[in-house]
Every structure is written in C-alpha cells, then in structure tokens.
Amino acid sequence: MKRLLPLALILLLAAGCASKSVTKTKDQRYNAQRAQAYGEFVARRTSELQLMGGPFKDRKDAEAKARSDADSQFGGMPAEYTTTTTWGKHADAAEKQAEFNEQLEKMSRDKGP
Questions:
Q1: Is residue 49 part of a domain?
Q2: Which domain covers residue 41, as residue numbers?
Q3: Helical H runs in 19-90?
Q4: What is the distance between the alpha carbons of residues 11 and 42, in angstroms, rounded to a whole number?
Q5: Which residues contact 28 (CB under 8 A, 6 or more apart)?
Q6: How far is the C-alpha of 17 from the C-alpha of 10, rounded, in Å?
Q7: For residue 4, is it within any domain?
Q8: 3-state DSSP call for residue 9?
C-alpha cells in the first residue's frame, strides 16, 4: 500500500500536467452612466462624512468609507477586464462557445429590428 501511494500521486500530477489550459482575457463593457453615478456618490458621501467630523475628518478615511458605502449600494465597480483560465479536456470549448455567441449577437445587431 505504501508503494502505491507515491505512484498514484505521480500519475495524478502527470495527468494534470498533460491537460491543456486555456487563458482568456475578456474586456468588460464600460458602463459610463453607472461609473458616473458611482463617482458622484463617492464625492458627495466623502464631503458629507468630512462635515460630520469624528473619525472621518481626514479625507482618506472619509473616501475609504464612502467607497465602501458605494460598493454596498452599487455592487462595486467591475474591473475593466477579466482573465479566466480553464483546464481539462474541454478547456477550449467555453472559449469557442463564447466566440460563437458574440458572432450571433453581432449578426442580430446588424440585422436590426
């Protein structure tokens, strides 16, 4: 039994190294209205917190609290891009499906209503 454990571990690692990985970086759609509303909320809340005084007299502390409040209200701002890595036998299937969906979306926009 003690001899099989290292062998099984080596086989498992070899199988993991043999599987293909796919890394995809996806640009997020920029939502200007949401970003503007987020920025306005942070600016307004920062000034309110500074006027309240107490632990928020310092602008950094007030802005950090305002960003925390904005994240809870707006759900946080999405990153400009995301990177995903998939592993395994069908690693590139998700990427191909996403490209196909984008192509269908583009065709439906070009076709119009």
A1: yes
A2: 24-111
A3: 32-52, 59-74
A4: 53
A5: 78, 79, 80, 81, 82
A6: 11
A7: no
A8: helix
8 A C-beta contact, residue 43 and residue 59: no
pLDDT in 10s for each residue of the chain, 113 residues: 677 888 777 877 776 666 666 666 666 666 778 888 888 999 999 999 999 888 888 999 999 999 999 988 888 776 666 777 777 777 777 778 888 988 888 888 887 66
In a domain, 83, yes or no: yes
CA-to-CA distance for 52 and 44, rounded, in angstroms?
13
Q: Are 70 and 40 in contact (CB under 8 A)?
A: no
List C-alpha distances in Å: 100 to 30, 35, 71, 97, 105.
22, 29, 33, 5, 9
- Where helices occur in 53-90 by DSSP H, the ranges are 59-74
